[in-house]
Amino acid sequence: MTSGERDRKATLRTRLRAARRNAVMPPMTAEVLSAVGAFEVSAGETVCAYVASAVEPGSLTMVEALAARGLRVLLPVVVGEELDWAPFDGRLRVGAFGLREPVGPLLGASAVGVAALVLVPALAVDHGGVRLGKGGGFYDRALRLSAGPAVALVRDEEFVPSLPAEPHDVRVDAVLTPGRGLVRLPLL
């Protein structure tokens, strides 16, 4: 990636974060449950999810709805430069970067590998499946260990035709927005 592309990525992150500051974030509960059905994820199977911050699509209600469906929900815990995973049992604490994370036992970074579905936050996603995250690479490293489909949650206007990508960026299999619902990627 050239320095110009890297600058474009940084500029996009700044612009997208600014746009989210005053936006109402969608809870995404109904959309996520619909995606679970579309990917035929059954009770007892594992879904990796996240507890959204105030400036991310998603909600604690979304996570609780997954658990209420009988799914085993794993949530990320930041450990150093990696995402570890712990089961969601309703109890949360504030962890690294001010993110809410589960208090249960850590299962290791490879726990994402058993997930039938992985829900990931994003600032934007393009039609080819390129996901623009916050820039730390945590989800790119985690998704390399995943066998299940990765679905990024964004606002409608954050699903865009094209984004800059670096070789380490892991593409997502689908995007989920409030207005469009589940869109499998890449678009042809």
TrEMBL record:
Cofactor: Mg(2+)
Keywords: ATP-binding, Ligase, Magnesium, Metal-binding, Nucleotide-binding
GO molecular function terms noted in the UniProt entry: 5-formyltetrahydrofolate cyclo-ligase activity; ATP binding; metal ion binding
Coiled coil: none
UniProt-listed Gene3D superfamilies: NagB/RpiA/CoA transferase-like
Catalytic activity: (6S)-5-formyl-5,6,7,8-tetrahydrofolate + ATP = (6R)-5,10-methenyltetrahydrofolate + ADP + phosphate
Family statement: Belongs to the 5-formyltetrahydrofolate cyclo-ligase family.
InterPro entries, per database record: FTHF_cligase, FTHF_cligase-like_sf, NagB/RpiA_transferase-like
Enzyme class: ligase
EC number(s) on file: 6.3.3.2
Classification via PANTHER family: 5-FORMYLTETRAHYDROFOLATE CYCLO-LIGASE, ATPASE INHIBITOR/5-FORMYLTETRAHYDROFOLATE CYCLO-LIGASE
Listed GO biological process terms: folic acid-containing compound biosynthetic process; tetrahydrofolate interconversion
The protein, known as: 5-formyltetrahydrofolate cyclo-ligase
